[in-house]
Amino acid sequence: MPNAFFVPAGVGDEGYERVTATEHTVSLWAPTMQHGAPPSALLVRALERVDAREDTRISRVAVDILGPVPVGDIEIRSWTERPGANIELVVAELWAEGTSGTARAVARGSAWRMRTTPTDDVVHTGEPTMRPVSEGIDNTFGELWASGYLDAVAFKFLTELGVPGPGQVWARPTPVLVQGESMTPLERLFSVADIANGVGAKLPIDEWTFLNTDLTVHVFRVPQGDWIGVSAETSTGPDGIAMCAGTLSDELGPVGRIAQTVLVRRR
């Protein structure tokens, strides 16, 4: 199996790029669907590339998972929704064939892309700093958490799962995003970010499912290095709906925040 989440699969009839998901993308919740992280990173890849400009970067990404993203062929579509000299909105969608045989959008991402300018002299971080990677413990999410995606990521845990307060872990994807390519810093960030609701979970997975339907990430600094830190905690309401919120970091410190809507169900 290729050491990549996706392999190139040519161009479709309408000229859209196509890729094929590998087993490294398989979700915890079902063997036929992808974990949310690889398709999120694939959307970010498209958002960075569409009408690309060297003087801009992505500042916020909102991903909506419109249905199970299948472990199979994926078509990537992207466009500029709102062009601008300083601020622009770019959109990308992942399309796949449904059970009826008709193609449909299975995930959508939108991003504010802003023109950059030097602000080195006023840098400030208001987010808490995680303990370093060197203090993490090599571990996995356990037998109940085994999946193609989780098995393809190296973890160093700073806390145990389910502890009071935020769960904290350093993570490093071992495959590349697309075979034959190096990951950009934001692709790497989003190839991990979606684990936040698992890191911040307080419910035992043998009794509950907690599937996120989206993720919104604000990035105030482009991450550096291979390791991504996730510090997150889930708040659960009385009616089966929860929210996970947390901080994303690299080894130099925080780089942004993530929020997810979570559907909670008893098994």
The ordered string of helix (H) and strand (E) elements is EEHEEEEEEEEHHEEEEE
Q: Biggest sheet, open or closed, and with what strands and sense?
A: 15 strands, mixed
The amount of beta strand, in percent, is 35-45%
Number of strands: 15
Low-confidence stretches: none
* End-to-end distance: 33 Å
Briefly note the structural class of the backbone.
mainly beta
Cα-atom radius of gyration = 18 Å
| Separate helix tally | 3
Helix-residue proportion:
under 10%
Principal-axis shape equals globular
- What does the average pLDDT come to? 94
InterPro entries: ACOT8-like_C (IPR049450), Acyl-CoA_hotdog (IPR042171), HotDog_dom_sf (IPR029069), TesB_ACOT8-like_N (IPR049449)
Pfam families: 4HBT_3, 4HBT_3C
Protein name: Thioesterase family protein
Organism: Rhodococcus navarretei
